Structures are given as structure tokens and as C-alpha cells.
Amino acid sequence: MSSGTFAVLGLFSDAHKIVEAAQQIRPRQLGRLEAYTPYPVHGLDRAIGLAPSRLGRLVMLMGVIGAGLALLFEGWVSAVDYPLVTSGKPLFSWQAFVPVMFEVTVLFATFTAGLAMLFAFNKLPFFGHPVLHSKAIKSITRDKLALSIEATSATFDAETARQALLQNGAESVEIVPVPVWNRPLSLVGLLRTIAGIVAACAVAGAGLFALEKLIPIVPPMVHMHEQPKLNAFRVSSFFADGRGMRPAVTGTVARGHLPPAFATPEEAGTLLGNPLPLTQPIAERGRKVFNDHCAICHGLVGDGVPLLSHAYGGKPGNFLSNEIRARPDGHYFGVLMLGKNAMPSYAADLDNHDRWAAVHYIRILQRAQNAKDEDL
Amino acid sequence: MSPVSPRSSLVRNLLVALTLVGAAGTAGVYVSASRERFWVNWLVWTLFLLTLGLGNLFLVALERLVSAHWSVPMRRVPERIASLIPLAIVLLLIAFFGVPVIFPWTYPAVAHNPILVAKTAWLNLPFFAVRFAVCAVVWMLFYRFYVRGSLRQDENKDPAFTVRARRLAPAFMVVFFFSVTILAFDWISGLEPEWYSDMFGVYLFAGTFISGIAAMLLGVLSLMRRGRLPEVQTKHVYNLGSLGLAFTVFFAYIGFAQYMLIWYANLPDEVIWFKHRIEGAWQPVALLLPLLHFFIPFFLLIGSVGKKHPAPLRLAALSILLGHFVDLYWLIFPVLGPRPLFGWPELAMACFFLGLGSLQIRRAMGRGADMPVGDPLLAQGLEWQV
Q: What does DSSP say about strands A5-12 and A145-150: parallel, antiparallel, or unpaired?
């Protein structure tokens, strides 16, 4: 008898009666009690033996975890991983973290509430509850309240359950059979799901396209792009001279680019000395600068034999010649800044450190090519 | 209403004694302590009583506005606590003697302060008095309308009053928000007239509302313990607890929002007000405020157990009321200096005002039936289910 029965369903139209019936039937332990009502009935949860929900505690726990994680994450980002002082505030400014902590708390709590309610406590995915296929379901969703005794044990007897419901005031009783389940992953089901996703994407895409392009009601997110602003290379009506880019104030010096205090290399030779100590790293830096910028004309050893063809036509200086060797360090620096003959200025291409390093390297080349006995 | 038991008269005598001792102490404060300290104490406690009364009048009007059923059986309690309003208005009238003492915009030196000169159109004594008079008249009119009308309904059972009370509630809401904002601007932030915060009115309203709920909870619980509200059940108190929970969060939200915006913008003339209140010796008081006003009541009331049993409800309500005092103390007392003052003058004046307020509420508690027996919604309110 019990094999084909899912539950026995008794219909009531009075909320008080269904609570009373549940209280009467529950001690008889005929099977698990469940109730289906179109609106919440006060006290029915306790009458059918539902324990207080554990959902609240779970939500609380996850909310606190969310707040803690947000605090840790923001603290780590702003004070540990990428410490950046913002408007003079301490790196770990808890005040600024609170809104995000609040949001993450709400996020964790609501997702926990929703997902735990659906999947953990209401046992989704659970398609097609047997009661949905009963004859009574129409009235349950309208004005009737149903108490069901589910066939949870082997000793379940549908007739006893039916009698119990009728004795306790059920207006009618229906026996709900165990349904024949469709396999959830059938080919048709899969195809329908895919078709549904494709259709949803198509509708959403077409809708967005229409709204943005055809009917300009919803503009795309360009607010930041459209704000009034100054473009350095555009005309601007903001300034009287109509230029977006502001000319530098007279006397402005770019950081790291102090203008030279000399007019000729000779003057530089009398004014300047090499401020860099001659160390291994500086010498190596000098070699790199020399090989990258100077050797192409002056040759790898500074002998004035260019790496490029002579067709170029210039006549680069020979650093090994006595005339050039005799010049002071400042003179080399001055030539690098101002240029000489066909050689252009390297004021814009190198910085002072690299220039002085190159001068050191030239001195090393000169000494190497004119080595004396004591150098060996 | 209730028969006068020996215990009841003992409590009354104790309260009278407390008030008299407090009154003597208050006179002593006036004679011996500085005038500023006296009037600042006076202001804190007057505003404490006034906001409790206004919060409860707001609860009454809110119930009328939304035609709530569940709170009807308990409505006599907020109606009675609202009787603090006339008392506090008298006390605030007396505080006018202190206005030239504690409000810097009344000092002659204002003429040399360009910020205050620019504000004289608002901050001048005649307009200040007019604003207060308008607010006081409005509060008294609504107080009489709601409380007297409800008592009269007990006898004549006239359902038309319920309709009239609902029709007038929206007007009350509008006037109430304006008047509480004026109260906050004039009597609290006016103590430091260079400072202003747009949110300050809402902040005081949030404190008023939540402490009103707390006072109502205490009143309902104490009447229930004396068996004077036999038909009020756990479900009614549960709902009141839920309202309390919601508005502790509201208070914390408003309080933090005001603090965070000013902290973030870091404008010197705004942030100085908070700097005086959260740094140095005031820091413990500033930390006490969220603890009493938010964390303790929030965690007491968040579970369903806390809203069903008198002990956690009473504890949460007491925490909120203490927090409300700490809030007013923290808002007002820093004008006296960088160290929180709390000594015998504060205790004496606390005794006086708390005794006075308790006597006033006790007197009102004996007035009329303990439930609004003439209200047509009472039956629905008693049957109402969560």
C-alpha cells in the first residue's frame, strides 16, 4: 500500500483548524508533517514540528565574516600592498572602509540568506514537487490550506493517515502518488536550456543596441568623457589666449634639467669638474652610454673611426689624439651639452649623471690606449 | 487608576526626595560653580527630557499616520511620556536666562567675527525667541490634540477622532521635522556658531526617535510587570523591539554619515568640531557613544530571543537612554573645555531633572485608562499577529 504513495493530503479552509489538526496528528508519528498554505499561518510551523530556522545564525555569521573580510582586504590594499597617502589621511583609515564593509556585510548576508534558504534548507534543485501534480494544488494556491502526511517510513499506511486527517476536520483527502521523475539532464532539456540562454542574450543584446544606438534614451557611460576639461593640445575658450596648454612661467626649469651655466665647451672646461667618483658601476654605466650614443661615430675605442660608413661624411674627433686628451673633463661635458661641428647636442638625450659617466669612460679608453708601464 | 500601594507611595516619596535633593544641589551649583557649567547642564537635561517627549509624540503621530494596529494597545504609554513636552518647554524658557551666558553669538565680541556677523540675520535674540515660541506652540498644539483627544475618546468612543488624528498626522510630520531641525541648530550647534552641518537636524531627530522608542519600551515593560497591561502580549513588545532595532541602525547610520563626510572633506572649519570631540580626553566619551547607542542594543535586539524577553529589551532600552544622555553630553559639554567635566554639579542636576521627569511621567501614568479603550482599532491591535 505504501509503495506508490508520496503523501496523504488533507484540505482545510480554516487556519485555526489546520493548526489544531497538526497538533493532534503529530504525536501519532504517522509520517513527516508538511503544510501548504496560500498565506503564512501563525503557529503552524511549531504545530507541524519545525524547529526554529538556523538561517538567522548563518546569516549573522556570514555577515560578520563579510565585514571582517572587507576590513582585512581594504586594510591590506591601502596600508600593505599599495600604500598610497590619500589627502593626508593615515594609510589605515577605518572611516573610509566602513561603507565598503557595510556593503560587503549586506552582500554576504543576503546571498547567504537567499542561497542557503533555496539550496540548503529548501533542497533545490528540486524540480516538480509531487504536490504540484495533485488535484488540490489549485485550491491550495487560492483559498485552501493543506496538511500532508508524507510517507517517510516503511510502516506508513495511507489509510490510517487518511482517517487521521478526516477525524481532525479535513474537508477532503487526496492521496498523492510518488511521481515518475524525468531525467533532469535529457537531451531535450539541455537543448531547451541552451536555446533559452541564446534567446535571452539575443533579446538583451538587441534591446541594449536599440536603446543606445537607435533610440538615444540611454546613452552609454560617457559622463567622465563628456565633462568640461582642459586638453593640452586643443583650443580652449577658458583662457584669454585661447590655448589649452599653458606656457611655462618665465624662469621655469624642468626637474633634473638645469640649463647649462656656460656658453662654450671651453668655458665649461674651466668651470666644471667631474663630480662622480670613478667606481666600477659608474664606469660600466659610462661604457653603456658611450657604446649606445658615442661609439657609432667616435668608434668603440674612441679613435674617431665610426662604426657607420665614411659615406656619412663627418670627421668625428679622435679621443686618443693628444689635442683632445689634453682637454679638461668639463670640456667633454660642454660638448655633450652644446654639440660641436657636425655633432648635435645631447642635452635632451642624456642626463647629467650619464654624461659624467661617459666622460669617465672616455678617460678609461684614453688610458687603455696609451698605457704606460706602471699601468700593467 | 491603580490603587495606591505602600510600595508605590514609597517610590513616589523617594522620587520627591531625589528631586528635592537635586533641586538643592542645583541651587548650590548656581551659587558655587561657574554660570557656564550650570546652564550647560541645564541645557543637556532639558533637551534630554524634551527629546524623550517629542520622540514619544512622534511615535503616537507615526501610528496615526500609517494606521498601525499593533501599537494601539500600548499607545497610552507614549502619550503619557509625551507629557514631558510641557515640562521641558517651561525648563527651556528658564534656559533663556542662560542664552547670553553660553551662546557665543550673543557676546559683544561678535562684531569682530566676520563669520558671525554674516550669520546675524539668523542668530539674533528676537528671531531666536520667535523660532522657539513657534516650535513650542506647535508642539503644545499637537500634544494637546493627540493626547487630550485620545483621552476624550475613552469616554465618548468617537471613531471620528481616529480619522481626524490620521488626517492631521502628515502635517505633524512636516512641522515636526522642521521644528526638531530648528531645535538642533538653535540650542545645540548654536553653541559653536561658526560650525554647521546640514545633517545635524536629522542627527538629533534620529536620537530623539530611538530614545523615544527606548522610553516607550521601558514604560510598556514596567506597566506589564505591574499587571496593568494584561492583554498586551509578547508579539506587541516584539514588534516594538524590531522598531527599536531598526532605528538603532538608523541612528548609527546618520551619526556615522555625518562624521565620515566631515572627516573625509577635512575642511578646517567643519572638522574642528569633531577634533574637539574625538581626540584627547573626549575620546573615551566618543567611543562610549557608539557602544551604548548602537552595539549593545543592536546585538541585544537582533535575535528573536532578545525581542521576546523583558530582560534584554529593558537592557537595550536603558543602554539607548544612557547613550542618548552621553550623546547630548558629548554634543554640548565640549564647549566648556578640552576635558569632560563630570562631578557633583552634574550628579546633582541629573538627580533634579531625572526626578522631575520621573514624577511627571508617574503623574501622567495615572491619567485615564492604561489602554485607549475608546479607540476603534484597539480590538484589531489586540488580535494582530506578527
A: antiparallel
Question: Distance between CA B132 and CA B326 in Å, rounded?
Answer: 24
Please tell me if residue B264 touches chain A, with a CB cutoff of 8 Å. yes
Structural domain spans, chain B: 6-192+200-239+342-378
CB A145 within 8 A of CB A18: yes
CB atoms within 10 A of CB B61: 25
* Dist CA B384 CA B386 (whole Å): 7
Helix (H) or strand (E) holding B118: helix B114-118
CA–CA separation, A292 and A45 (whole Å): 84
Q: What is the CA radius of gyration of chain B?
A: 21
**H or E stretch covering A149:** strand A145-150
Chain A residue with CA closest to B383: the answer is A42
CATH of domain A265-375: 1.10.760.10
**From B256, B266, B302, residue closest to A98, measured CB to CB:** B256
Helix (H) or strand (E) holding B184: none
Element (H, E) at B1: none
Domain boundaries, chain A: 1-181, 187-218, 265-375
CA distance B215 to B354: 13
Q: Record the cell numbers describing residue B60, joined without a space.
A: 503616537
Per residue in A152-172, pLDDT tens? Answer: 877 888 888 888 888 888 898
Q: What's the predicted TM-score (pTM) here?
A: 0.72
Band (A1; pLDDT cuts 50, 70, 90): very low
pLDDT value for A29: 85
- Distance from the A117 Cα atom to the nearest Cα atom in chain B, whole angstroms: 18
pLDDT in tens, B290-342: 999 999 999 999 988 899 999 999 999 999 999 999 999 999 999 998 999 99
Q: Per-residue confidence at A347, pLDDT binned at 50, 70, 90?
A: confident
Contact B55, B212 (CB under 8 A): yes
Residue pointed to by grid coordinates 652644446:
A338
d(CA B100, CA B144) in angstroms, rounded, equals: 32
Q: Is the peptide bond before B170 cis (omega within 30 degrees of 0)?
A: no
Ranges under pLDDT 50 in chain B:
1-2
Cell of B198: 546640514
Between chain A and chain B, the number of residue pairs with CB atoms below 8 A apart is: 18
- Map grid coordinates 503557529 to a residue: A43
Please enumerate in sequence order all residues whose Cβ is within 8 A of that of A155, keeping only pairs 6 or more positions apart, or say none: A2
ipTM: 0.81
